[in-house]
Design goal:
CATH superfamily of one domain: P-loop containing nucleotide triphosphate hydrolases
Number of helices: 9
Radius of gyration: 19 Å
GO molecular function, one term: ATP binding
CATH class of one domain: Alpha Beta
Protein name: Nickel transport system ATP-binding protein
Helix content: 25-40%
Largest sheet: 6 strands, mixed
Strand content: 15-25%
Keywords: ATP-binding, Ion transport, Nickel, Nickel transport, Nucleotide-binding, Transport
Low-confidence stretches: 264-268
Pfam families: ABC_tran (PF00005)
Distance between the termini: 26 Å
CATH topology of one domain: Rossmann fold
Oligomer: single chain
Strand order of the largest sheet: 6-7-8-3-9-10
Order of helices and strands: EEEHEEHEHHHEHEHEEHH
InterPro entries: AAA+_ATPase (IPR003593), ABC_transp_ATP-bind (IPR050319), ABC_transporter-like_ATP-bd (IPR003439), ABC_transporter-like_CS (IPR017871), Nickel_NikE (IPR014137), P-loop_NTPase (IPR027417)
Bound molecules: adenosine-5'-triphosphate
Number of strands: 10
Shape: globular
């Protein structure tokens, strides 16, 4: 469904008097994502995960390579076709507060993609928003509240409701749980797993949080300095990788007390 082929990207370095060489951020990235699958994209800060996420969302044209979705090249299509493609690929970002307009109600936020893509009567729109709110564990009566009235976890549920409103085929979740406390992280992961089971959507789950990736992903890719350095289909395969980038992610999440450490090597 999603085919990322030999994607490389460099950012222009600027420079006032003379042009500095561009800074390479991604090098020769290739992978596929099948329908209904969750692919975890792991790496420490600055490895290029968000840049890759933006390229996959159609927001950043790569310097080289091809991204195709359902057989269509994202960056070769005309504007109208891209408008249609955007319906199928949605996103949830880390900062749940800046992702919403503080002056809009939750109902307006969730209803925005429906207004853009579907011609619903006011009554039908209200019914769909109420349904979406309930699907993400909120209440229909929350539709009238503004973002300031919600906690971070609740607001991220609203962002998820907006992302699933059009029943997309793929959701790019870029550090979508990273700013939440542990209880909310667990609850949102459970919600995402449930929604995927219900609707068969695919996820690209971008994170530096190895436990979260292991919880939700069918396959994991680890990036280091703009390259994929490890591909793993199980926790055991990931945890046994000797690559320093993987070991760094593992070490970053180990609890201080040895008795609390999990024996990942026995997991499949
Ligand atoms: N618009 C931009 N212009 C120039 N350089 C950029 C731009 N966006 C990102 N970069 C640089 O590209 C590199 C990769 O950034 P990116 O945000 O993709 O990494 P990341 O793995 O998602 O990191 P983080 O988890 O901290 O967001 C970094 O060195 C960053 O400074």
């Amino acid at each position: 469904m999603l085919d990322v082929s030999q994607v490389s990207h460099s950012y222009a370095a600027g420079g006032r008097l003379w042009r500095k060489p561009a800074i390479p951020v991604l090098q020769d990235i290739s992978f596929t994502l099948e329908p209904g699958m969750c692919l975890g994209l792991l790496g420490v800060s600055g490895t290029g995960k968000s840049t890759l996420g933006k390229i996959i969302l159609g927001l950043q044209r790569p310097t080289a390579g091809r991204v195709s979705f359902a057989g269509q090249d994202w960056y070769a299509r005309d504007r109208r076709a891209r408008h249609h493609m955007r319906r199928e690929v949605q996103a949830v970002f880390q900062d749940c507060y800046s992702a919403v307009n503080p002056l809009m109600s939750a109902g307006q936020i969730i209803g925005e993609p429906l207004r853009n893509y579907e011609r619903l009567s006011a009554l039908e729109q209200k019914r769909r928003v109420a349904e979406l709110l309930e699907q993400v564990g909120l209440q229909a009566s929350d539709a009238d509240k503004r973002p300031a009235a919600f906690s971070g976890g609740q607001l991220q549920r609203i962002n998820i409701a907006r992302a699933i409103a059009l029943r997309p085929k793929l959701i790019v979740l870029d550090e979508a749980i990273s700013s939440l406390d542990m209880v909310n992280q667990t609850q949102i992961l459970t919600l995402l797993s449930q929604l995927r089971a219900d609707y068969g959507m695919s996820y690209l789950f971008i994170t530096h949080h190895i436990q979260a990736a292991l919880t939700i992903s069918d396959r994991m890719l680890v990036m280091d300095k703009g390259q994929i350095v490890c591909t793993a289909d199980s926790a055991a395969a990931l945890m046994s990788s000797p690559h320093p980038a993987v070991q760094q992610l593992i070490a970053a999440r180990l609890p201080e007390h040895p008795s609390q450490r999990l024996d990942w090597s026995s997991e499949t």
